[in-house]
Design goal:
Elements: E1 3-5, E2 12-14, E3 16-19, H1 21-24, H2 40-52, E4 57-59, H3 67-74, E5 83-88, E6 90-93, E7 96-99, H4 103-116, E8 122-128, H5 133-138, H6 143-150, E9 154-160, H7 164-173, E10 176-180, H8 189-198, E11 201-205, H9 219-228, E12 234-238, H10 242-247
Parallel strand pairs: 3-4, 3-12, 4-5, 5-8, 8-9, 9-10, 10-11, 11-12
Antiparallel strand pairs: 1-2, 6-7
Length: 251
């Protein structure tokens, strides 16, 4: 599978990344159908398949329930085979999301992720925005991440944004931005264009509209369209179905 450089960093990632929210959380999610959390064996098989077809990029977060802890178990002995992106700012406890963007909370979150993932560094850390992108950035949410980067605990940082203004500001002040983009939603293309001009990394969420794409657009065609957009580094897709993963990566 093709790999692309993540903006101006020295990180190369597969053009399709595996999202792991379904590894650890099935409450309060917006997928078309309910699902059970996968067994350890199902997770291992999916990760092995992802690796075999050339995927090296995994997207997780504290807000994804037990996802980080499970990945930490499954990736023992193969940490350097993967590029891992996680997040700060949002956690999921007792069936509810909690947000905390204080300096202490961000530093604690990164340290907790390092422990759960059984690693001494994180490749990418994104601020898990609550929607107030600009206000969060102006309040200094990137400052502790800069500090952690200088300490070698993270390699790159940015934000998973929800607004165009916030996306552009994140591009200006960080290494990478994650935006929503798919054939039925192109509002955030301006952020991608801006990132391309600034040579910053662009990760795509909801490339398949969380499973809600209209029937006239196949998943593989949707991914081709997204990855053909100048500036896009990688599209994150989440699935527990090995066949779907194979079908969606046959470019």
């Amino acid at each position: 599978m093709e790999k692309r450089r993540l903006g101006s960093t020295d990180i190369d990632i597969s053009v399709v990344g595996l999202g792991t929210v379904k590894f650890g959380r099935n409450q309060g999610v917006k997928y078309p159908a309910a699902f059970d959390l996968p067994s350890d064996e199902q997770c291992r098989q999916l990760l092995n398949l992802a690796k075999a077809i050339g995927i090296n990029f995994l997207d997780t977060a504290p807000a994804y329930g037990s996802s980080e802890t499970r990945l930490g178990q499954f990736l023992k002995g193969q940490r350097h085979d993967w590029v891992i992106s996680t997040k700060v700012g949002e956690s999921f406890e007792n069936g509810e999301s909690q947000f905390n963007f204080s300096v202490d909370a961000i530093i604690a979150s990164v340290n907790d992720s390092l422990r759960r993932l059984n690693t001494d560094y994180l490749d990418v850390v994104l601020v898990h925005s609550n929607g107030d992108d600009v206000a969060l950035i102006e309040a200094g949410v990137f400052e502790p991440l800069m500090q952690l980067k200088s300490q070698g605990k993270i390699r790159a940082f940015g934000m998973s944004t929800k607004t165009i203004a916030g996306g552009k500001l994140a591009v200006d002040l960080s290494d990478v931005v994650m935006v929503s983009f798919n054939p039925t939603y192109t509002d955030e293309r301006d952020v991608i264009v801006h990132a391309h001009e600034k040579q910053k990394g662009v990760l795509i969420k909801k490339a398949l509209a969380s499973g809600h794409l209209v029937e006239t657009v196949s998943p593989i065609d949707a991914l081709r369209l997204v990855l053909a957009e100048p500036g896009v580094t990688s599209a994150v897709v989440g699935t527990l179905n090995p066949q779907h993963l194979l079908e969606n990566t046959c470019f």
